[in-house]
Design brief:
7-stranded mixed beta sheet, single chain, alpha+beta
Amino acid sequence: MSIVEMVVLNVAKGDFTSDFDTKEEKARNELREFITDMLTKGYALFLEEGEDTHRIQAYDPGTNEFTVAGQRKGKRSVKISATSPEETTKAPARKRGTAVAPSAGG
């Protein structure tokens, strides 16, 4: 199991969390819809990867990769897998994303 946890910070409607099991095709499609919807509404989306934080630009359910603003080697954007290397362990691998509403300072 590989979980992407999206935390939504919204002052007007309240904060909430949605989990997506990216091993499931349906959940990958739901994650793409979620990310597309949040970006359309003006949310700033961030993906935590170890000690690094990246701004999410898109998610591709076919490759199970996030497109994030390029912070490596001068690239405009880079791909980051939603699958964590820890998947070989018994514990579910988790990636955490945060969606910040425009009203919450995003």
